[in-house]
Amino acid sequence: MLIRFCVFLLEASPILRRLLWRWWYGRLAGKYTARDWTFMNYGYAPPAGAPALRLDPADEPDRYCAQLYDHVARPAQLADAAVLEVGSGRGGGASFLTRRHAPKSYTGADYSPQAVALCQQRHGAVPGLRFAVGDAEHLPFADASFDVVVNVESSHCYGHVDRFFAEVARVLRPGGRFAYTDFRSADDMKVLAATLAATPGLEIVEQEDITAGVLAALAADDARKRALIAEFVHPRLRHLFGEFAGLSGGEMFRGFSERTLSYQRFLLRRR
């Protein structure tokens, strides 16, 4: 009940949503600095029979989270591109995509100064990768300065997602690509897709429901996440972290399982 009440408050107040998520992610970055925790997404498991993604041994523990990044960003063709990731979090996805897809440059922007400092400390040695503090609704970058924008499981934290989409269109060069994925309630996902389609300058090229793949990843990665939470999180906060991580038996997990929550992938192009 407490979680549902918090969700109601966040949906009712965009300002409160922005402030609370900024505090939450800043606290996570400042307090929980374990090197084993570099990704913050629910992950993705490809359908049965699909070829397995080849990973470096160092990336293998984060396979499902890395697979989500790769599945979302690969169609945007990152090689030799100037890439901006909005909502780069703890930087694991930015590091992975930079090392795997060899963009010309990769900038990870995040609302939390603590998260940016953590990323610079942890991933600053990756060639071509840098991090900057930036508000998704007021990006601190010039018009038409990027070939690709990436946004993975972050926009549900924003106060006004339509402002974010307008900023994406502004910073993309003509013909640039927007690789985007997130979850919403089933009804809100329809509104989100309509908002995307109505954003001036952007056109939807691909849309894919990946709820089943995300749910499969949550189930497959459940034991590892439980072990990390048990190791690094105070017992009083473990239930909250479990919901945040989408552990089986929690409300997020049930939402994906019962399809009251929908997880979608989009690829858009700047006209």
Describe this structure in words.
The chain has one domain: 3-Layer(aba) Sandwich (Rossmann fold), CATH 3.40.50. The protein has helices at residues 2-12, 14-31, 63-73, 92-101, 113-123, 161-171, 186-197, 211-220, 222-232, 238-245, 251-258, and strands at 82-86, 105-110, 129-133, 146-152, 172-185, 202-209, 261-270. The protein is built from eleven helices and seven strands. The radius of gyration is 17 Å and the shape is globular. It has a seven-stranded mixed sheet. The termini are far apart. By secondary structure, it is of the alpha/beta class. The model is unreliable at 1-5 (pLDDT under 50). β4 (146-152), α6 and β5 form a beta-alpha-beta unit. Helix content is 45%, strand content 20%.
Attribute tags:
271 residues; Rossmann fold; 45% helix; disordered N terminus
Walk me through the topology.
Layout: H1 2-12, H2 14-31, H3 63-73, E1 82-86, H4 92-101, E2 105-110, H5 113-123, E3 129-133, E4 146-152, H6 161-171, E5 172-185, H7 186-197, E6 202-209, H8 211-220, H9 222-232, H10 238-245, H11 251-258, E7 261-270
Parallel strand pairs: 1-2, 1-4, 2-3, 4-5
Antiparallel strand pairs: 5-7, 6-7
Helix pairs in contact: 1-2, 2-5, 3-4, 9-10
Quickly give the CATH architecture: 3-Layer(aba) Sandwich
Number of individual domains: 1
Strand order of the largest sheet: 3-2-1-4-5-7-6
Number of E-state strands: 7
Task: Label the overall shape.
Answer: globular
Regarding CATH, which class? Alpha Beta
Strand residue content: 15-25%
CATH topology: Rossmann fold
Give the distance, in angstroms, between the N- and C-terminal Cα atoms: 44 Å
Radius of gyration: 17 Å
Low-confidence stretches: 1-5
Let me know the average pLDDT: 89
Order of helices and strands: HHHEHEHEEHEHEHHHHE
Helical segment count: 11
Main beta-sheet strand count, sense and barrel state:
7 strands, mixed
DSSP helix fraction: 40-55%
